[in-house]
Amino acid sequence: QVQLVESGGGLVQAGGSLRLSCAASGGRYSSINDMGWYRQAPGKQRELVASITSGGSTNYADSVKGRFTISRDNAKNTVYLQMNSLKPEDTAVYYCKAKGRANFYAPMRDYWGQGTQVTVSS
Q: What tens digit of pLDDT does each residue of 42-84 get?
């Protein structure tokens, strides 16, 4: 099994910054490939915010380009989301997702974190 633990959410004023972290852990033979951040606002569908491959290639939603930066530390199996110039519309529960396998024989699948609340006040 692979577990994802997120941290770094909270309440911030518009224009402020937050940094989210997501650490993946698993058995000795587990592996992690692509990682990413999604968010879900009340009454809306979950949407991709940003993703990063194991090689460092990134992808961003148009709404966060130029404000958010995704990065990862492969040695720590940790992905980060630096969020700057936050807007009230960024308010949502942010979820970490990792594509990986629990061991050599397990199929590749998506794993999700428990979510962390980000609230941006106007």
A: 999 999 999 999 999 999 999 999 999 999 999 999 999 999 9
**CA 52 from centroid of its chain's CA atoms:** 9
Nearest to residue 116, comparing CAs of 6, 37, 12? 6
Per-residue pLDDT tens for 82-103? Answer: 999 999 999 999 999 999 998 8
Q: How many CB atoms lie within 10 A of CB 7?
A: 13
Q: Collapsing DSSP states into helix, strand and coil, what is residue 8? A: coil
- Report yes or no: 100 and 56 within 8 Å, Cβ to Cβ: no
**What token pair was written down for 26?**
């698993």
CB proximity list for 56: less than 8 A, separation 6 or greater? 72
